[in-house]
TrEMBL record:
It comes from Corchorus olitorius. This is DNA (cytosine-5-)-methyltransferase. Keywords: DNA-binding, Methyltransferase, Nucleus, Repeat, S-adenosyl-L-methionine, Transferase. It comes from the Eukaryota. PANTHER family: DNA (CYTOSINE-5)-METHYLTRANSFERASE DRM2-LIKE (PTHR23068:SF56), DNA CYTOSINE-5- -METHYLTRANSFERASE 3-RELATED (PTHR23068). It is an enzyme of class 2 (transferase).
Amino acid sequence: MGYPAKDALEAVEKCGLQAEITELQDYIYASQMEKEHDDQFQEPSDKDGIFADICPRPPHDDLPSRGKRKLCDNKVSQMIGFGVPDHPCYVERVLPKSALVPPYQDHAAKDMKVAILVDMGYPAKDALEAVEKCGLQAEITELTDYIYAAQMEEEHDVQFQEPSDEDEIFADICPVPRYHDLPSPSRGKRKLCNNRVSQMIGFGVPDHPCYVERVLPKAARGKPYFYYENVALAPKGSWKKISSFLDEIEPEFVDSNYFCVAARKRGYVHNLPIRNRFPLSPKPPCTIQEAFTDSKEFWPSWDPRTQLNCLLTVVSGAKLTEDIWKRLESCPGDIPTKEVQDYVLAKCRKWNLIWVGRNKVAPLEPKEMEMILGYPKNHTRGGTTRLDRHKALGNSFQIDTVAYHLSVLKKEFPDGMNVLSLFSGIGGAEVALHRLGIPLNNVVSVESSEVNRNILRSWWQQTNQRGTLIEIVDIQHITIDMVGQWIKDFGGFDLVIGGSPCNNLAGGNRVSRNGLDGELSSLFHNYHQILHFVRIMMDR
Ligand code: SAH
């Protein structure tokens, strides 16, 4: 994950072998922060003392003589700031004159956020816009997501032109608009859906139809179909590059919050038809209130969330939920102070915590993630640890979203399909096709994690699949001869599907977010190379 070995060792020694990775990460960040803090912030000098603000005012006898001294030694590593309710801290705080009265305070907070973003390598202009649009309360991850979304939209507009009149004959308009809804007078160069990229509705989602004209280059039309997935908010230029290797096809950016209760912003490049798609039924719950009926009685009026953020590969530890509980319990009355509310809400949003008791929040259980993502109950249970399950589910396809795109294949393949499933994970593609009622004849599944392979194999057996499942451990070992042999044995592949690891693309990675050339994300190149092999061997 990119942490210095020395820091990693210290973290494991201090936190113990049982500690979760997130706890170890927190430890490393806290000690780095403390070191940085000590280097940067000096004690106030006597001459500054006149402006010093001592909070809270200590009883006279407790007060050490003013001047160069440390009043609270561990405030940084304990993260109690300049004091929190149960941990008073006698901090001498010397503000520069310009920051003493509002609105200077707001300016300082804004500058600070912008400075952090610039430090992370984002252009100052974009950083400023993000802070202005998202507000001073926004967390850094929210701001970086905003910047990526804005860049993505801009890139998209530059790269993907409207189809020309002569292309129109191949255009696939989805869904077919009623005549009166079609803009006039002539078809051709026009924008049928203005905000589909920023709204992340792709080429339309069930309740938000979108009249898209899609023109595929000749080489990409028809079988073998392909479907490539990755995180939507990837570093600048990543999707342009992905498209350039996949017939210059425009990515379809979709947020799964149109299909289920959680966000999952993903880009999909595929050559599937986009007409006559249909959603899986039953439709899963799309609001927190529908999805977590048990938590209704505990949900406080000041928590306005109706949907969850993106499900991650790790969940928060017990320390955080206990801390939240203590803070809420220590507030007199039913409604906590605004400060406590803001703190709790920020943590709940970041970690997708839900209310499971009075003043009690908890992270999602794997079975809840399975339900949200559209997998069968207990899909990832058995022979796996909680950590494995969270990781596998955090990386997986959201079934309802992917099935919506694949639904167009149902009519074309009533007798089943041959699938080359690359980076299969826990079998998102297989489960989606199965839930659509498309038989799986031959599936070659390529997946490096043994835990994930076991999950897919067990699902294959539990669901009494009649086809053949071939397992390959490493995509890098696949040769053109192997592809040729499979094609000979099965008579060709109907679909090549997969999403390569997003580790070097995803927003959560602050250590090695180096785009498509990152160690793991570069496996994308194996995806398009294998698709190329399949096309050659199928004479396409
Ligand atoms: N779409 C999948 C998840 C994809 S995540 C799902 O629905 O579950 C990317 C997957 O690629 C991970 O499961 C990871 O274990 C796998 N992977 C990483 N390196 C690989 C390699 N060299 N060969 C095959 N699979 C690999």
